[in-house]
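FYI - complex with alpha-D-ribofuranose, inputs then prediction.
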Amino acid sequence: MPPTRVIIDTDPGIDDALALILAFASPELSVEAITTVAGNVPVAQAARNARMVLDVMGRSPGPPVAVGARGPLKKKLRPAQDYHGEDGLGELSRFKTGEGIPRYPEPQQLPEPQPAPALIAEIIGSAPGEIVLICLGPLTNLAMAIQAAPTQMAQVKEIIVMGGAIQAPGNVTPGAEFNLYTDPDAAKLVFTSGLPITLIPLDVTQRVMLTAELIDAVVRHIDSRVTQFVRDTTERLFGVEQRRTGYAAIPLHDPLAVGVAIDRSLVSSRPLHVEVETGDGPAQGMTIADRRPLKEEWKKPPNLQVCMEVDAGRFMALFLERICRPTA
Ligand code: RIB
Ligand code: CA
């Protein structure tokens, strides 16, 4: 089988960085471009972080890295640097080599001049039915691409979105997941676009957890730049999660979205009609998937494939095996 051609739209972000590593370590995927969006961190930092992950993997020049939306369509950006660290990657500047130089030097390659939404539409329009777009951050770039280039965007093979919470609690408010909370207006536009969308909500991503024990038992024994990076970028977050939840475990939200592009059999999905709350109140960003047995005339046609089950053990085995592979 030829590799699946993908674009990854991302707001790195520690789990985004792990997702990028998984994508590049997997021969099932060919990453055509990385597009960045404001979310966990401001968009310039997201682009710098994506480039840093490419440098760690020795993928330079690698695929184009484009800079996208500086903020949500309407809401105010509230980055998540308390969770991901000021740099968005777990405060990597702390790490030095034996000679005292930064273990992770500033990336030298500049981002693409073309804005992310235009690059997304150009690549998808140039290869009808071939490109899978994997969205790991707020959907601002995707919404802008649909608004600016609907004909090209209609050529997309599939859009895989990490976001939402169907019956699981939210992670940024009791009801809402971070990506959709950050830009609910973009999510609403995307979810009503009629494009083929697969949703990877917290209901499944919170069942695939990278633990400090797994780092100790598996990752620590493999000596590579990538495994060193995985240990360094997660070290601070294990402490954050330990204090927050009492358990040193990081949900692999974004890596699971990439995992679904690698092997669809890792999850089971069902067609649902899902709406997004765009108001400013306590329900902002909530995904409403009415699954009550409604009267026929009240039922609305499904607009998403929603993944509600995951083979967590098989995904974790895939994730660990791939990140421990020797870099190309
Ligand atoms: O809610 C989890 C999602 O929000 C992940 O994509 C994480 O990186 C943040 O962007
Ligand atoms: Ca993300």
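The first strand starts at residue 4 and ends at 10. DSSP finds 13 helices and twelve strands in the chain.
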